[in-house]
């Protein structure tokens, strides 16, 4: 007879919001002396719960997510010693120093009770501040230091469909901290809206429940901009075609 705790609960989906990404700061002269001579930044890459602790400068991490995550493996650039790093207990994060940006592979392994396969996501390590229009893409280190920490975080949701009964019990015993309904801090990533970039520099970002609506509005605004550009270039193309036809008629008249 099957163990009732190992029977899947059909038709049930349960979600756990997470974030993954990094924060980075410029190394002080003293810190550079004790690290690799070419390294310019200290950075931390992490997988955390989406909600942020109250009155904290940390992005996310209000909840302990080890009840459903067993291990996080960070695959760094091959130039790092032992580039595949396993973190088997919270906080699921890794701190290093370096000078360049690169893609980090993040493999999330769930607890055995879940019966779920590991998932892999990718994050581009961000070290340099996001530049506004007309600014150099990478500011000098002394300027970057004054701009404060760089944050690059991605919100995601882990969805468990038809969970085992014992795992469902485990999840329901640990409800996630709700996200704040409204934005209380700067945006947690920097979109193409440079006014928001200016407002978010040097601040500590926070994810909130209205983020999806804001992102939808930004995408709709971008869609309208693209359509307007298409219409503008279509008009230019029509005018150029008319000009070509006019010139062709003049050539034909001269030939006759």
UniProtKB/TrEMBL annotation:
Any GO BP annotation: chromatin organization
This protein's encoding gene: YAF9
Keyword Lipoprotein: no
Protein's name according to its UniProt entry: Protein AF-9 homolog
PROSITE patterns in the cross-refs: YEATS
Domain YEATS: 8-174
Subcellular location field: Nucleus; Cytoplasm
Family: Belongs to the YAF9 family.
Keywords: Activator, Chromatin regulator, Coiled coil, Cytoplasm, DNA damage, DNA repair, Nucleus, Transcription, Transcription regulation
Organism, scientific name: Hebeloma cylindrosporum
Entry keyword Transcription: yes
Chain segments annotated as coiled-coil in the UniProt record: 212-250
Subunit organization: Component of the SWR1 chromatin-remodeling complex and of the NuA4 histone acetyltransferase complex.
Residues annotated as signal peptide: none
């Amino acid at each position: 007879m099957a163990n009732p705790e190992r029977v899947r609960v059909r038709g049930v989906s349960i979600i756990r919001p997470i974030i993954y990404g990094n924060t980075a700061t410029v190394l002080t002269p003293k810190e550079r002396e004790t690290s690799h001579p070419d390294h310019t930044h200290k950075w931390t890459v992490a997988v955390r719960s989406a909600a942020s602790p109250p009155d904290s400068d940390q992005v996310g991490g209000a909840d302990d997510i080890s009840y459903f995550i067993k291990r996080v493996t960070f695959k760094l650039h091959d130039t790092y010693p032992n580039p595949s790093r396993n973190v088997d207990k919270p906080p699921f994060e890794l701190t290093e120093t370096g000078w360049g940006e690169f893609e980090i592979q993040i493999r999330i392994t769930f607890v055995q009770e879940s019966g779920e396969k590991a998932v892999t996501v990718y994050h581009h390590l961000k070290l340099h501040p996001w530049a506004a229009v007309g600014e150099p893409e990478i500011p000098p280190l002394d300027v970057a230091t004054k701009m404060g920490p760089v944050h690059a975080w991605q919100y995601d949701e882990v969805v468990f469909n038809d969970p085992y009964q014992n795992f469902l019990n485990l999840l329901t015993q640990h409800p996630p901290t709700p996200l704040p309904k409204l934005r209380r801090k700067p945006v947690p990533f920097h979109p193409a809206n440079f006014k928001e970039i200016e407002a978010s520099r040097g601040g500590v970002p926070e994810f909130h429940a209205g983020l999806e609506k804001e992102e939808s509005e930004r995408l709709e605004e971008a869609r309208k901009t693209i359509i307007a550009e298409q219409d503008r270039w279509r008009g230019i193309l029509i005018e150029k075609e008319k000009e070509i036809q006019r010139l062709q008629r003049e050539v034909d008249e001269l030939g006759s």
